[in-house]
Each structure stands twice: as structure tokens, then as C-alpha cells.
Amino acid sequence: MPNTTSESTIRRLSGLFACFGVPEILVTDNGTQFMSSAFKRFCNENGILHLQSPPYHPQSNGQAERFVDTIKRALVKGGGEGVPEQVINKFLMSYRVTPNPAVPEGKSPAECMFGRKIRTVFNSMLPPRKTNKPTNENRKVNRSFQVGEKVLVRSYQGNKKWEPGVIERRIGNVLYLVRKDVGKCIRHINQMQRNDSTVVTENRLPFQLLVDSSPKNHHERKYRKDKRRREKAVQPSRVMERKRNATPKLQVDPRKKSYTTDFKGGRCDDGPPVNSRKL
């Protein structure tokens, strides 16, 4: 910090709170920047309990004082390794990734803070881990392009939507460096497609191209395509034709005690109820 005024201290603490959250208790010494009304108002607005250590008794804030002494020793030992800021950053990296035997399970300060081990330069010496991705038969097949393969890349300038190009290099898993007629560009795999037209025409002779483009072959291909479409068409299901009789209507007669329905004759009568039902 260039200075230790209340405004500078509040700005620095606001940046720390944005990364790690607002603490419940803040323990400081009796410096003027911590005793000002602006700092007191800052703690009240954020719901922080501000505690000051007694004057001339640094043991009350022993952890902070001990770490200050550790920083001073690191600066003395690494004085010839660069500017003080670089020395402090190297020391903090080593300090924060070192396991602490006083912590449960021997975790490092960084692992206690973030819940994971932070990456260091020593991780590059370890072999890469293979992640087992879940297989799904119904998912889309992953596409890929080979170096030197001719493709069509999406163009966002001019009237052409697609421009021909050649894969020059693969960048990552889904990014490719494509060499076009004019210049190079980096495109996502979703912004490219195979240039099948160029691949087909390379293996054909000019005579074969003329034969395929003749009107006769064009009509033959169209006829075969229509024939296959008619063969694949679903035939309509045939419903058995039968004679349907109208539903007989009930004729109300108050003199009758019951009614019987004869569905075969399509009428209602009051004959003997053989295989009939009463309404």
C-alpha cells in the first residue's frame, strides 16, 4: 500500500471482502487508520465486530505478529532473488501450499481456504490424469478434423457465408487454425464443415463429370429417387367394410311394464326377453 490512511485501508479491505467474504470479527492494533470514524462506520455497515488489542501488548494478536516476523525473515533470506515484491510472492506461494501438521488431516492453508489444492509449477512434472467421460450411445458423435484436410469455414465478412480453407494446426480440443486463400483464422469446430465437393471432384475424371451432368443421367437419377420414395411410402390400412345398422330408438309406451331391445332387427318390442336386457 502506498499509504496507510483510512481510505486506503478501507479500499484494500473491500477488495479482500469481495474475494473471500465479509468476516464476523476483525482484530487490529490501535493504529490511527483503525481508530477513525470512517473505519468505524465501515465496520458497522458491514456488520463486523471490530476488536483492538491492548496498547503495548502485541501478544494479544499473536498470530498476526508471528506471521509478520516470518515475512521479515523471508525478505532477509531472499534479498538477492529479486525485488521485495517478487520475493514475498514466492514465499507466500510456498507457505500456502505447505501442509500444516497442526491442521486436521495435515492440510495446507490454501486447501483450508478454498477446499482444494492450488496448482503450482511442480504439477507440470506429474503425468496428466485421464478423465473417464461417461459414455452415452444416444449422444452426438464427436467431430474432428485432420491437419491438411480441406474444409469450409464460416465467414462473417462480405456476402459469402462459407469460405474454403485447409486445416493447418489444431489448437485445443475444439479450435483449429485454418489457412484460407487470403490470410489465416481461428475457428471453432461448430463453425466448420467438411468440403465434400472438393474431395469428390479430385478423384473424378473430366469425362465422368460430363456424363454425370448430362440431361439423360439427371432424369434417370430423378426417376430412381422418386421410385424409392414411392416404395417407402406407407400404405393406408384397410378397414373391413361392414354394414352398420342404425341404433334403435326407444318408443315410450306407458302401458308396457318393460321394454326389450332386438339389435338384430333394429327395433324395440315387448316380446319375451331372450338374451335381452331391461332398460
Write the layout of secondary structure elements.
Elements: H1 6-20, E1 25-28, H2 32-35, H3 37-45, E2 49-52, H4 62-77, H5 84-97, H6 109-114, E3 150-154, E4 162-171, E5 175-180, E6 184-188, E7 192-194, H7 196-202, H8 206-212, H9 215-232, E8 260-262, E9 267-269
Parallel strand pairs: 1-2
Antiparallel strand pairs: 3-4, 3-7, 4-5, 5-6, 8-9
Question: What value does the average pLDDT take?
Answer: 79
Q: Strand-and-helix sequence, N→C?
A: HEHHEHHHEEEEEHHHEE
Q: Name the strands of the widest sheet in spatial order.
A: 6-5-4-3-7
End-to-end separation: 100 Å
Structural class: alpha+beta
The portion of residues forming beta strands comes to 15-25%
Characterize the biggest β-sheet: 5 strands, antiparallel
Number of helices: 9
Which descriptors apply to this entry?
single chain, 279 residues, alpha+beta, SH3 type barrels, five-stranded antiparallel sheet, two-stranded parallel sheet, 9 strands, flat, disordered C terminus
Description:
With 279 residues, the protein is an alpha+beta fold. Among the domains are: 6-52; 66-119; 150-200, Roll (SH3 type barrels). The chain has nine helices and nine strands. It has helices at residues 6-20, 32-35, 37-45, 62-77, 84-97, 109-114, 196-202, 206-212, 215-232, and strands spanning 25-28, 49-52, 150-154, 162-171, 175-180, 184-188, 192-194, 260-262, 267-269. It has a five-stranded antiparallel beta sheet with strand order 6-5-4-3-7. It has a two-stranded parallel sheet with strand order 1-2. It has a two-stranded antiparallel sheet with strand order 8-9. Strand 5 and strand 6 (184-188) form a beta hairpin. The termini are far apart. Mean pLDDT is 79; it is low at 198-205 and 272-279.
